[in-house]
Specification:
Layout: E1 2-7, E2 10-13, E3 18-26, E4 33-39, E5 46-52, E6 58-60, E7 68-73, E8 78-83, E9 92-99, E10 111-112, E11 116-121
Parallel strand pairs: 2-11
Antiparallel strand pairs: 1-3, 3-8, 4-5, 4-9, 5-6, 7-8, 9-10, 9-11
């Protein structure tokens, strides 16, 4: 089992920045990818970004490309999501995810965190 704990959410004004963290613990043997998803009020959970735990290669959903950056610290089993130029539509619960292979845009995830709330005020 893998446990994922997110932190860093909060209230930010439009145009502001936040950095989310996700610390993983447990058996990481079969974990090769970690990702961020988000779920806005009344909407389905949606893919945001994924990073390879091996080489750091990343992929993003189009709406955050150029504004968000996902990164990993393999020594700490931690990933980050640096979010810049946040807009009100970025208000959501952000979830960390881990798995063997996480295909961008899918739910091919083995483990989920409990989420951290990000609120972007207009």
């Amino acid at each position: 089992q893998v446990q994922l704990v997110e932190s860093g959410g909060g209230l930010v004004q439009t145009g502001g920045s936040l950095r989310l963290s996700c610390a993983a613990s447990g058996s990481m043997l079969n974990i090769n990818a970690m990702a961020w998803y988000r779920q806005a009020p009344g909407q389905q959970r949606a893919f945001v970004a994924v990073v390879s735990t091996d080489d750091g290669r990343a992929s993003y959903t189009n709406s955050v490309e150029g504004r968000f950056t996902i990164s990993r610290d393999s020594a700490k089993n931690t990933i980050y999501l640096q979010m810049n130029s946040l807009q009100p539509e970025g208000t959501a619960v952000y979830y960390c995810a881990a798995g063997d292979v996480i295909v961008p845009g899918t739910y091919s995830v083995d483990f989920w965190g409990n989420g951290t709330l990000v609120t972007v005020s207009a």
